[in-house]
Amino acid sequence: MGWLLLQQLGGSQNVGVRRRRWRERNSDRSPQEESPWLNVSQVARYLNLHLMTVYRYLKTGEMPASKVGGRWRVHRKDLEAWIEAGETGSRKRVLIVDDEPEVADFFAEILSREGALAQVAQSAEEALQQVSQQPFDLVFLDLFLPGMDGAEAFGQIRKLDPDVPVVLITGYPDSDLVAKALRFGAVFLLFKPLAAEEIARLVRSVRRRTTGRFPPPQPGGQ
Q1: Element (H, E) at 125
Q2: Each residue of 133-168: pLDDT tens digit?
């Protein structure tokens, strides 16, 4: 088997399941107690996302929200609409980080067949810039890169987006870079030579994350 599961891919849980579980946890609250507005912590629990990821969505305007008294508030109806828009009619966005053009082309061809959108970064620095600008559903990251190595890049990606699933690519599973990467969290390892079916299986194993753009809701949800 050409890939090693070190932890279940983060961010792959269906949003509908997340929403149902959140409702079950809060089912003992009466309608009078349930406010139509959610704070940041409640949104993070609702979507099963890291708190900093929710803040990033809010600050970039990707999630519908208002500031009340200097604090973010998200209306339930707007959040539900945002989730539904993110779950329908959109393709997975996958980042490929590799300095070899032929490898990037190989990935891009497979991703195209799987109906995913491929974006390529040829260095760790370029990858970090892209991750800081938009959310990805999956990242394929080569450990051996010019300049900043893939292990260090993985640590920086975790700071920028703690929820994005990352697959590290290596031809040397016993290398020091693998051990270095594991200090930043458990990941998938994909071993070279790369197999198209293994890549496709990993792409299929993740679900598209909730993204969308709505105008900020008015107070009262109007």
Answers
A1: helix 124-133
A2: 888 999 999 999 999 999 999 999 999 999 899 999
